Amino acid sequence: MEPGPPGSSGPAEPGPCLSGQRGADHAASASLQSAARTESGRHSLAVAAVLPAGGCGERMGVPTPKQFCPILERPLISYTLQALERVCWIKDIVVAVTGENMEVMKSIIQKYQHERISLVEAGVTRHRSIFSGLKALAEDQLNSKLSKPEVVIIHDAVRPFVEEDVLLKVVTAAKEHGAAGAIRPLVSTVISPSADGCLDHSLERARHRASEMPQAFLFDVIYEAYQQMTYKRITQRFTTNSPATIVEVRKQ
């Protein structure tokens, strides 16, 4: 789904308390309200978020992982957490970080007074980190403050400019279809090269879209998909970091 127009108002809560939305936002909130109704009454949709943050900054070519790079003297990941914390209907936020950066992440949470944050150890790949976050939400552990959500959002730790209306739309679509994600029109020309590196053909931009974050899933759909992938397949097979790929492969 493509992001809505800038400046659209965001809801206070996904579920029956949504009101006052216009146009597509109104239709989305009404759909979510309907889905939230039960015979015994109404309830808010349980939503959590998972942020894989175990990258080492290799592609960026800097010694500090980009999620910890300072922007105006504040780590980038802190801005992303702040953006998600402003969305009051996201109940839990799970961040997957490497063991060596666990104390760094704890100090960021304390310094900037982040709330609703739980930490898990990241895996050797992005997919393994996401799976670690999902397992933390799925398992009923003693003294754990986490609870299994109905829908889970997966977002990049280094993308703080995420709008609440986009989050609402992907959650609403995931509730209806099982999985959803933000997309945008292609800007650059995408080509398919031949084996010798020459141009084979160009893709028609109007027929394709670029996949973006955030993505949202019914929790059982994405968790079961990751469970069915072996360690080797999750670690080595996938050339894309998109969790939607895991669901796609599961269906094949």
From TrEMBL:
GO terms for molecular function: D-ribitol-5-phosphate cytidylyltransferase activity. Keywords: Cytoplasm, Nucleotidyltransferase, Transferase. PROSITE patterns: ISPD. One of its GO terms (biological process) is protein O-linked glycosylation via mannose. Residues 1-35 are annotated as: Disordered. InterPro entries: IspD/TarI (IPR034683), ISPD_synthase_CS (IPR018294), Nucleotide-diphossugar_trans (IPR029044). Pfam families: IspD (PF01128). It catalyses: D-ribose 5-phosphate + CTP + H(+) = CDP-D-ribose + diphosphate; D-ribitol 5-phosphate + CTP + H(+) = CDP-L-ribitol + diphosphate; D-ribulose 5-phosphate + CTP + H(+) = CDP-D-ribulose + diphosphate. It is found in: Cytoplasm, Cytosol. Its EC number is 2.7.7.40. GO terms for cellular component: cytosol. Pathway: Protein modification; protein glycosylation. Cytidylyltransferase required for protein O-linked mannosylation. Catalyzes the formation of CDP-ribitol nucleotide sugar from D-ribitol 5-phosphate. CDP-ribitol is a substrate of FKTN during the biosynthesis of the phosphorylated O-mannosyl trisaccharide (N-acetylgalactosamine-beta-3-N-acetylglucosamine-beta-4-(phosphate-6-)mannose), a carbohydrate structure present in alpha-dystroglycan (DAG1), which is required for binding laminin G-like domain-containing extracellular proteins with high affinity. Belongs to the IspD/TarI cytidylyltransferase family. IspD subfamily. Homodimer. This is D-ribitol-5-phosphate cytidylyltransferase. It comes from Papio anubis (Olive baboon).
